[in-house]
Amino acid sequence: MNMVDLIKKKRNGHELAEEEIEYVISAYTADSIPDYQMAALMMAVYFTGMSKRETADFTMAMAHSGKMADLSAINGVKVDKHSTGGVADTTTLVLAPLVAACGAPVAKMAGRGLGHTGGTIDKLEAIPGMRTSLSMDEFIRNVNSIGLAIISQTDDLAPADKKLYALRDVTATVDIMPLIASSIMSKKLAAGADAIVLDVKVGQGAFMKDYKSALELADIMVNIGESAGKRTMAAITDMNQPLGLAIGNSLEVIEACETLKGRGHRDLLDVCMFLGSYMLMLAGIASTREEAVAELEHALESGSGFAKLKQMVEVQGGNADALDDYSLLTQARIKYEIKAENNAYISSLSAENLGLCAMRLGAGRMIKDDSIDLSAGIMLNKKVGDFVRKGETIAVVHTNDRQKLSQVLPDILSSIQMTEKPVARPKLIHALVSRDGVESF
């Protein structure tokens, strides 16, 4: 095939055939197509778009560009969960143990944080001794043994996506809806799950800033999953403020443990219950959402969810005592309290800005090779709509660097807005997208 002809075909608004897409992805992955030609094709896609069929074919070609995980040796229906990225979004550490405790196998490959969003693997590695790089045999054995394993994504998982995303990042072609969806779903499909529940974040701290864009992305990804023969659902949840209270790796481990012990913030738990209910339904554990929620609540109240988290940590070499004795986790030397100057209500908490502030304190990465401080971050005591009395602590900044604290503190303060008038709590869950359509909440 001639790449120039394919670029021209896409530029003129025509659909690429499945075999043409497969050629482009396989040849680009093998370095047979130069970056400048692939960049031209991506720009053509930017202006002319892709049909649902093209998007599904493009995703499958990227998924098959490396090894496809074979999880057939794991008993039961494997349901994966993926978030499009958020701040204080500690759902996996709470959700995965709860779902596993209800009898659904959770075999999850997760990523690291970048920019203002956190990564599950970084959080797990805040636990002393925790291993997240397991062989596929050990991964499968652990899931069959205890029902739960979370490991880091392997380098051979959808390599075309890694290469293509790096190119799009420097050619202003990241924000193309079909390619965003393909990037996410190619990794999910390559990870080998039988069904997928997506958490599409929307709002100021999310990649999708408005509901219409989030709904479009959710619809495309559900279509991709269903086209690949995987039952797929997508929740649209709010990210105008941090989901939980903790922003930072050790802090989020603590919050996950407290949530599983029944002492977490209701927002984080509600999203976990919502996502988890559909995971249990897709896994065949429950037939209705009400039945699934009841199962999850029992796992929470009985302590079996927390016990499952401890079990996974032990099996993967971590010190499970740290989940009860938080002093065994890495602690920041400096803890700076932000106190209210007057009686007031929290009117807004900028999720993106607070995430970026935590990153600058050392909790995250600007580029993927940056080292991180597992103890750094921000612990919120209040959320939007909460009343704060004068002198009461609104948040605590955790850091090991006083210079960073002085540099970042003004931006943290500007991210927390107050008002004298009562403020309504923001809507947490907006919609569920499935093959049956859109259900609003």
UniProtKB/TrEMBL annotation:
InterPro entries noted in UniProt: Glycosyl_Trfase_fam3, Glycosyl_Trfase_fam3_N_dom, Glycosyl_Trfase_fam3_N_dom_sf, Nuc_phospho_transferase, PYNP-like_C_sf, PYNP_C, Pyrmidine_PPas_bac/euk, Pyrmidine_PPase_CS
PROSITE patterns listed in its UniProt record: THYMID_PHOSPHORYLASE
Protein name per its UniProtKB record: Pyrimidine-nucleoside phosphorylase
GO molecular function: 1,4-alpha-oligoglucan phosphorylase activity; deoxyuridine phosphorylase activity; thymidine phosphorylase activity; uridine phosphorylase activity
Native source species: Mahella australiensis (strain DSM 15567 / CIP 107919 / 50-1 BON)
Function: Catalyzes phosphorolysis of the pyrimidine nucleosides uridine, thymidine and 2'-deoxyuridine with the formation of the corresponding pyrimidine base and ribose-1-phosphate.
Family of this protein: Belongs to the thymidine/pyrimidine-nucleoside phosphorylase family.
Boundaries of every Pyrimidine nucleoside phosphorylase C-terminal domain copy: 345-419
